[in-house]
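Regression test case RT-17, inverse folding.

Input:
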């Protein structure tokens, strides 16, 4: 905001200086414009650099958010598939137990329960692994965002220093 204001003020002074100069003598009007030009040019260049850095940071942020969303969707899909697979295995085991003879009923029921427990275990492991991947992706996205923010901060500081140096000339 301050840079924009300074640019507008510099432009105003250049405009006022050129408007006050007589039309017959353009050389004196050019002198104040040249004196204000290095600072104004530095200001414009700094504004462009900062805008580019901010735009780049926003692009990195959007890309990181998209990557996290994609990972979350993939994890949800894996969890749903694992849950469906576990339910199918349990249903199949229960159906087998129901078909068993009266003498083998207890053994078949125990086997069905064991199969169900294994299916639940496998489903839980798959869910944990998927959540682990999402967590890693979130950490990576956070790091990408932090790097982009650091780059933007560096560009802002560099631009500020350039403007200060141009103003000192």
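Golden output:
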């Amino acid at each position: 905001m301050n840079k924009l204001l300074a640019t507008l003020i510099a432009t105003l002074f250049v405009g006022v200086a050129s408007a006050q100069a007589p039309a017959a003598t353009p050389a004196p009007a050019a002198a104040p414009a040249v004196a204000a030009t290095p600072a104004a040019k530095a200001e414009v260049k700094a504004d462009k650099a900062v805008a580019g850095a901010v735009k780049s940071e926003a692009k990195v942020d959007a890309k990181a958010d998209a990557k996290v969303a994609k990972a979350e969707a993939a994890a949800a899909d894996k969890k749903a598939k694992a849950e469906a697979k576990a339910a199918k295995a349990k249903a199949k085991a229960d159906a087998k137990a129901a078909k068993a003879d009266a003498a083998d009923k207890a053994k078949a029921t125990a086997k069905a329960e064991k199969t169900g427990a294994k299916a639940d275990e496998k489903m839980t492991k798959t869910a944990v692994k998927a959540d682990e991947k999402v967590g890693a992706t979130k950490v990576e996205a956070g790091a990408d965002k932090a790097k982009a923010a650091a780059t933007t901060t560096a560009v802002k500081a560099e631009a500020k220093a350039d403007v200060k140096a141009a103003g000192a000339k």
